[in-house]
Structures are given as C-alpha cells and as structure tokens.
Amino acid sequence: MAIETTVANKKFLALLGCIHSNYIKRKDLITLVSNQLNLSQIQAEGFVARNIHKLQKRQGLITSSGKQGERTYHLLPPLLELISQNRQIESKLSDQDRLQQERDIADAELQILRGEIQAYNDLLTTYPDSRKEITTLIKEARDHAHRLNGRVNALEKVILAAN
User: What is the pTM of this model?
Assistant: First the structure.
C-alpha cells in the first residue's frame, strides 16, 4: 500500500493506536507523545507537528478543527485502517524481535541526539550572546540522551539475558 511506505514514523502510528476514538486534542496528543517517548515538551511539539503535517498535507489522512491553542485532530478512515494494520503487524512480531527493534530505534534516536548536542556546542561558539538559551537546550538534550542511553543499555541486557 502506498500510504504505508510514505508514513515515516511507525512510533507515531503506534501512539495514534492508543487513542480510543477517531479524534484527539493537540494538547492531549503532545502529552501522550511526551510521556510515551520520554520527550521534553518542545521535542514532543515538534514530533507531533512533523507527523501531523505528513499525514495532513501529504496524504490527507487526518483533518483538524478549532482555532490555534484549541486544535483537535480527526483521524480519517484510511488512517484508522492503517493504524489497525500496524497493530496486527506488531502483534505478529516475537518479543525478541520487538526488543531488538526497540533497541535499534532507541539507538538511532541516541545518535541523533548526540548530533544535536554537537550542533548546539557549535552554535554556542558561533553565537555567544545566545549562551543562556543554547545552554538550556544542551542540558535538555543531554538529559534526554542519558535517559535514552539507559534505555538502550537495559534493552541490550534483556536481549542478552533472553538468548
């Protein structure tokens, strides 16, 4: 199916699968993403914005209503079907496969965060007047990287113990 190959983020589909209706408020979705993916508020907002944009503008799988600050997203039938298919695929994977998949995803996110931290450090030398803001962003990214690194380590230990 063409939609499956263009929906980039399987995590987002899985999170949408947690919703028990065909709509969700933006603030609730950001909170869900923040809690489930262990992201900061700013990171969760960006994650939601990117994925909603893909689903809304590129594929027309989701619509929105309400004014800014009170936005509600409505999941259309093709997206609900895709979420259902995603659930079926995930349920067919063995625990070991899911653990390895989760570890690979967490490891990739960790690599991205390391690049983000390096970029902030580069920006810090280029823009010393923005030191306070950049330092705050570095701290948030490092904290998230530490949590993610702990998750990767835990997943690796569970995978090794299961073998």
Answer: 0.53
User: What letter does residue 70 receive in the DSSP assignment?
Assistant: S
What span, in angstroms and rounded, lies between the C-alpha atoms of 147 and 108? Answer: 14
Distance in Å from the first CA to the final CA of the chain: 35
Which residue is listed with tokens 């919703």? 19
Contact 83, 13 (CB under 8 A): yes
Q: Which residues contact 83 (CB under 8 A, 6 or more apart)?
A: 13, 16, 17, 75
DSSP β-ladder status, 23-25 and 72-75? antiparallel
pLDDT per position as a tens digit, 70-99: 899 998 888 888 888 877 766 666 788 888
Rounded to whole angstroms, the Cα distance separating 72 from 100 reads: 35
